[in-house]
Design goal:
GO terms for molecular function: hydrolase activity. It is globular and about 55 Å long. By secondary structure, the protein is α/β, with parallel strands linked by helices. The longest helix has 17 residues, at 17-33. The relative contact order is 0.17. The chain is built from five helices and 16 strands.
Length: 275
């Protein structure tokens, strides 16, 4: 049996890249002191997320960083042997993508560009077009960003690619149209947890859900980072405040136990799945 430490992070990140890097360094130190081998940081941990879906001016957008930018190299240097997933605004020519990269001290292990965009985001970001799984020292990983996890097909595509661990990086806010007085009662709070547990159980894999905390302009983020087992059980979690959800997991054994009798990926009948 090979047990690894898996950390899901809830924390606030803004526009100041130096401050983001300092916070990442502190988080990685705390996570490793608890035995973390994999740390999943939130979406937009380098440079922050949008402040408003209704039309922020270009000056308020997150800094756009090219692939291989010095900030990601600095994160890789901080990571060392630890596998780290981190989100940022990626610049590719005139296009911006809401992107995530998985890396360690040896370099980039995998990347993902957010495919599914909530209303308003498409005004600022170009959509990605694929879901990949890739090998890392802690196992085969797939990544989703924010709204991606609302769609069962997204997680299923990564699972069919062999992902054992699904890293879901978010900057997920409370309801924009009908915010509840208490965050725990907010509709988006309930859905965020529901999607995390459902995507893990549907695909019988380990899901690691990170999220931003605090506020950015008119957006108030949920937190609620967690590690979810292949049966949909929450192994570790934070609540609305910043923190690290850390669980020691034998990923291969947990998946084997979940799939011992029912094997969802093998028992699909895709020829019947049509309108």
């Amino acid at each position: 049996m090979t047990t690894i430490g898996i950390a899901a992070v809830a924390a606030a990140f803004g526009r100041d890249l130096d401050a983001c890097l300092e916070r990442i360094a502190v988080i990685l130190d705390h996570a490793r002191s608890g035995g973390a081998d994999l740390v999943v940081l939130p979406d937009a941990a380098l440079g922050g997320y949008l402040t408003d879906f209704r039309g922020p001016d270009s000056a308020s957008l997150p800094p756009a960083l090219e692939v291989g930018n010095p900030w990601l190299r600095k994160v890789a240097g901080l990571a060392g042997p630890t596998v780290v997933c981190v989100g940022y605004c990626e610049s590719d020519g005139e296009r911006r993508y809401n992107s995530a990269v998985c890396l360690n001290g040896d370099g980039v292990l995998g990347t993902h560009r957010k495919v599914h965009q909530p209303p308003g985001e498409q005004s600022f970001y170009t959509a990605g077009d694929r879901f990949d799984a890739f090998d890392t020292p802690v196992g085969r990983i797939g990544m989703l960003i924010d709204y991606d996890k609302t769609f069962p097909e997204a997680a299923r595509a990564a699972a069919l690619g062999g992902a054992q661990i699904l890293a879901c990086l978010s900057a997920w806010p409370t309801s924009i149209t009908n915010r509840a007085p208490r965050m725990v009662d907010d509709r988006q709070s309930r859905l965020f947890d529901l999607y995390d547990r459902s995507r893990a159980a549907e695909n019988q894999l380990v899901l690691v859900s990170s999220n931003q905390t605090g506020s950015s302009g008119g957006l108030r983020f949920l937190g609620q980072a967690k590690v979810v087992g292949p049966g949909g059980d929450v192994l570790a979690r934070t609540w609305s405040k910043a923190g690290i959800a850390l669980a020691q997991v034998d990923v291969a054994e947990e998946i084997a136990a979940a799939r011992r009798t029912l094997r969802h990926l093998e028992e699909r009948r895709p020829e019947t799945y049509r309108p």
